[in-house]
Each structure stands twice: as C-alpha cells, then as structure tokens.
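Pipeline run #58 for the internal structure catalog. This entry was flagged by the ingest filter as a single-chain record with no existing model, so it goes straight to prediction. Upstream metadata was stripped on purpose; only the residue string is passed forward. Reviewer on rotation: M.T. Logging verbosity set to normal.
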Amino acid sequence: MPERLLVQYPLATDRYDELWGESGPRPHWQAFLSRLAALPESTMQSRDRFVRESIASDGVTYNIYADPKGGSKPWELDLLPLILPAAEWRTIAAGVAQRARLLDAVLGDLHGPQRLLQDGLLPPALVFGQHGYLWPAHGVTPPGGTWLHVYAVDVARAPDGGFWVLGDRTQGPAGAAYALQNRMTLSRAFPDAFRELHVEPLAAFFTTLQDSLARLAPTRGEPPLVVLLTPGPYNETYFEHAFLARFLGFPLVEGQDLIVRGDAVYLKTLRGLRRVHAILRRLDDDFCDPVELRADSALGIPGLLQAVRAGNVLLANALGSGVLETGALLGFMPALSERLLGEPLALPALATWWCGEAPALDYVCSHLDELVIKPAYSSMNMEPVIGHTLDDAARAMLIVRLQAQPHAYVAQEWVQLSHAPVRAQGQSGALAGRSVALRVFAVATPDGYVVMPGGLTRVAPREGNVIAMQWGGSSKDTWVLSEGRGPSSGPLRRKLQASDVVQSGVSIPSRVGENLFWMGRYSERCEGIARLLRAALVRLADAAQGSQPALRSMAAVCSALGILEGVSPGSSQGGVAGVVVQEAEPDFVGAVADPTSPGGLAANVARLCASAGQVRERMSTDNWHVLGRLPHRLPGQRPTVGAALEALDEIMLSCVSLAGFAMDDMTRDESWRFLLLGRRLERLAHLSGVAGAVLGFAAAERAEALEWLLEAANSIVTFRARYRRAPELLPVLHLVVLDTSNPHAVAFQLRDLLQNLDASAEELGAAMPDGELRALGKRLADVDLAAFEALDSPSLESACDKLATLLGEVRSAAFKLSEELHRQFFSHAGTQAPGHTGPGGAVR
C-alpha cells in the first residue's frame, strides 16, 4: 500500500473522491499508485521537471485576457493523470454521443421549422432574446444536414458518484488539442505505466475528424481543401489552433486569408486563389461575416454567409450554433430528448433554473444559499456568483438584479465537485486533492457521433470549487483504460492510391508566405546586427587606443544603417573622425538590449518572433524551441559590455541554428522558397550597405575598418586562411563583395537570389520582378579589381566611389524587390476567382 503518498491526502466526506473508495484506493488506481510508490522522490521530481520543461520547450501557452501584464502563460499540466475504468467510460461516451445527436436536432429545428417553439417545448424569449440566435442563418441547411460537426460537453461528478453536465460547447469547442498535447507529454513521463495499463489512444479521434470534414465538404469532384479559421495569435487558445492545424494538416488561416468570389470561398495562396470546401472554425458566430452579421468585425470573411447559403462551403460548426451554449437550455433537455429522439436523456445536467420563467425566479430568490447564479448567455460579461458566499447587502442587490432582468440569468444547484489527486508542492511527494471537471469531445460521422476516449481534465486552483483556466486552473491527462489487452483501434480509413500522392499538394496561404518571407528577413537582420555589434563590443571591452578608429567607423556605419541612434559627434570634425567613442558605448550596448531602439537587436528579435508566431503551424518542434528561447537570450536592461557580449554569442548561435533549419529542416515547397528569398534579400541588402559605407570612408579610416568588415561579413577566417596577412583593400573587397564562392559576399547573395527567383517563377508559374537586380549583377561582375591596386591615388578613390554607388543601387533594388513581391504574391485585392470574370460569377 503506498502509504507514503497518501499520508496527507484529504479524505473528504462531502464529495466524491476519484482516488479513494470506501475501503481504500479504487481498483483502477491501484496499479498506477503501486508504480508511483516504487519510485524515489528524486525520480518524481525529475519527471515533474520533465513535464514543465516539455511544456515550455513545446511552447504550450494559454493567453490570459485579464492578466494586467498581457501576453500568454505556460500551460499547466499536473504530473498525475485522471484514471477512469472502461465500464464507467462506456456510460459517459454513450451519454455524450446521445447529447450531441440531440443538440444537432435542436439546432436544425431552431434554424428550420421551429416546431419546438410552436409546441411550447422551448420558450421563444429564451431563443430569440439572445445574441446567439442568428436570424440570417434561419433556413440555411448545411451540406449533409449536419449542424454540429464537433461538440464538447463539460461534465463533473457529483457527491453520489454520477456524472452531471455543467455546460455545452457548440460554436468552436476548445480543448481537444490541449488534451492531445497533455497525452503526448504525460505518456513520455510514464511510458511503462501508460503501456501496461492499456490506455485508450486519442489519435483516432482526430483521424475521424479529418475524414468527416473531407467527406461532408461540397467538393463537386475536386480534392477537398479544409482550412482551420482562427481569430489570430491574440486569441486565448491560439496555441491550440496552430497545434491542431499542424496535426490535422489543415492550413491555418485568418479571415484576411479568405475571400468570397461568385458565392464560393477561396484561399489566397502564393499560386493565386484556391477553392475552399470546408472551414473548421474557431471564430465566434457573429464575427464570421461583417456583411450580414457583426458589421464591425475585422476577423471574418465578407460574404461568407451567402457562400454557406449557396451550399458551396461547409462550416464546422454551422453558423448559429452558439445559441445552444446558453445554460438556460439545460433544464429543457429531458423533454426535448423525449420529443426528438424518443428516449430519455442518458446524461443529465445539474438542476438548472432559467429565471425568465416566473416560478423559477421565485424559487431562485428564495433558495440563493443553495445555488450558483450564472449568465444565461455567453455574450454577457459576468462571473458566476455563489449564493452562500454573499452577505445580506450583496444578496439583496443580487435579487434586485435578477428581478430587473430575469431572462438574463440561470441558477444551478451548488454541489461539491469530485476530488482527484495532484502532486503537492514541497511535501515530499505526498498527494493533495483538487476539484476536477472533465471536457469530453465528439465528432460527427455518417454512423453517428464518435467520442474521444478521454478528454481534457481541468483542475481547480488550490482548494477552490470553481474551475476555469482564466482563473489560474491547471489540467490533467485523462486515461481511459481499455477493456481488452490492448487499446481499441480507430475506424478503418481508405488506403491512399497513386493518384492521391502528390509532390506539392499543400496550399500555402499568402499570409503564411509573407510571414515566412519576413521571418527570413528578420532572422538574417538579427544575425547581421549581432555580428556588427559583437565586433564593436569586443573592441570596447579591449579599450586599447588602437581600437578607437575602428570603433568610430563602426559607430558611423551602424548609425547610417539605423542600428544606433544619437551617436555623438565631436566638436571639431563631423563624420567618422568626429564620433566620440566613450559617448557611443551606451548606444552600442543599448542597441543590443533596448527594445525601444527601433533598429536595434532587441526590437528585431521581437519582430522575428512575431512573424514566426504567425506561422507556428509551419515550424518543426526543434525549430520552434530555438525561436521560443531567442528572446530569453537577450540581456536585461542596462547590461554591462561583458553581459551584452555573452548575449550576442548566444543569439549568434540561435541565428545559425535557424539558418540550419531553413536549409535542412523544411520541405522545399513555395513557402520555403519565400523564406529563403527573405534571407537572401536581407543579407544582400545588409552586406551591400555595410560594404558600401566602408568604401565611402577616407583612405585612412577605410584601412582601419577592413578587419571589422571581415568580421561583420563572417569572412575573417577565410581571409586569414587564404592570405595569411593583415587585411588589405583589394583582397577584402574581392572576398566580401565579388567572390561568388563566399556565401557572405554580395555577389554570392545576388547570384543565389536570382537563382531562387528563377526557381520560384518556374514553380509558381509567374514572372518574378528581378530585372533591375539582374542588370546590377552584370555590372557587379564587370567590376575591374585592378582599379583597386593603387594606394592613395585619385583613381583609387574614384573606383571606391563608383563601387560604393553600385552597392547602394543593389541595396535599393533589394528593398524594391521586397515591395514588388508583396504586391504580386501577398496581396490579392484585384484577383478574380478561377473560372469567373466578375461579381456575377459568369464562367469563362
């Protein structure tokens, strides 16, 4: 018996305990507890760390709207699972599947014949009195006649041990991907226990979701294109959207990525517009279409409802499904089940009263101490009020509110939710108890609803009884034990045929291509800035008198490129010679660490991470780990020169890793092409700018700048290996500007950029705007190195000026190319749908 674990475990008598029965640990927990008891505390602490580090390295987050600091917080996963026996799960799964069928039928009636209203089974004020009922969606039948494609229900165990419904989730149910992430993490923390307990797997549920959407999509013979619609990176569950899109293989899109043409929905891709057949949405009903629904929505797709009305796109779930999320419906469900399904409701809800009915309002006002008051509609901004916690004044005020707007409130019976074990902090491995609730998911198939064998277990913070992730709750993996000797298999899928296998069948949204393009640019920009600043800080740390001229020239170049701001000139001369190095030191250090310096490293790291966050679903786990750690490599505010140098070394390693991922970790599709175009274009512009600025110096200053120019171009080792002497202008210019074998030379970048433009043009079937750069490349190839042999002669200065001007033209042409690529591939304002010539949709 694992007494050590249970020495401080609370044995509550007023609630059901998931672990402890009348005579000890419940049978389905005993094998797992025995394994835990056999592990030393050091091993458990190690696995605790593994879970936390896995969550952090995978970037699993949950955005907290109410957090005054803003941003996101790491997902909380407890080390111990919630374990449920197979027989008990059969009852839950059957009840969830029945409830999904019932709600699908209710939704079909409310947006169709409305017999439930005519027969008095639902009060009209309950349906029409809320924002969730969408009048424009009335009469719209989705393809296949299914309204709820994905359904979730929150259930909890009451003191008698039975499961009761707390609420339904029908618009865009959240949590399934978090449940899968929990499983992936915890199965690695306890691989032996997971295997030997024969825990039901979750992956088949997501396979079923893929197949269901593809089967129901109105393709008219085309290969189905299913997309996942997200509100964007600031949504509270954006991690889940990106994770789910990556796992399912669906393009992750925002409203701006989609456009309606001829009553059909199209995805703006790098190859043009491509027809979308199904949309798995995580966007609330009224935000989906600013034309017919919420006019101020910047997240939706204008004309979407008309495309749905025409039957040209499947929307999962159907528009208007939010009407079912009101808690006021719970009390009417038993009668609705008898009418629509002809069978009693298998999974009851907690006793619920809608205050819009006079007898219910009277009961609620006289029994507040036994109830929890909640908003009737999801659009209301109100937290639940627990009646027995109110003093007399607050109680009287609440009754006044209820009587003033009774239809806006529901009341539910207050019950003590069941306890499950969690790892207690700092108690030598002893277990503590926390209140838990379970979110269970179902997906529609031609044979009925399939229920995920598990779900997302949510855990109340500390000793609370209110469970909400926004209030600091955590989660558990949910282990459903298999009835046989192994986990049950998922539904059989059609095997892929030769015609299904395509080399490049992924549609890349233009927004994804644009963010990958800028991710490439910012990653190169960060590396280029880091190399320049590292060369400067090394000389600042050296503090030798001989370093002063080089520092002055670096300060001038960084200022000209916008990396430094406010570099102080001396009193006697302007330009390079007048830079006061001592006053420039805070500027160099600030360019590393100060996020308010727009051209500095910290600001560009933030831009890189923002661009990467927009295309998270395109990142491998390893790639994302590097990106996720990158902001933490920056030093704190006002670092020393030594701390700034140490940070630059770490950031340089991260930038090199990102370059490696770009070359070796990504599939060579058009998205990779645009990532590479961004990298090449930015490096070309940066090298041209730095080399051109050095060529513009006077002869003495130029000579002092040659060594740090080689360092900034990552070519110092190559130079020393080739020439074994101090830097001189002629060989340095050849290596940094004209050498097509040096990947850090201007000519190499220009040649490689043009080759990638040619390859992209062939892949995309579109002309690329490269004419100006091609002509400049020919001029660069014709540069006569012999003109740079003379020392301190007018001809040498003339040659330097001409090359500096040419490099300036190359830099300007690179930025112009960026603008042309944006106009041609990332914006589709004037693009017509394939097969259509205008708004009327006339086929060519």
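catalog note: The two ends are 78 Å apart (CA to CA).
catalog note: The CA atoms of residues 519 and 610 lie 9 Å apart.
status: ready for reviewer M.T.
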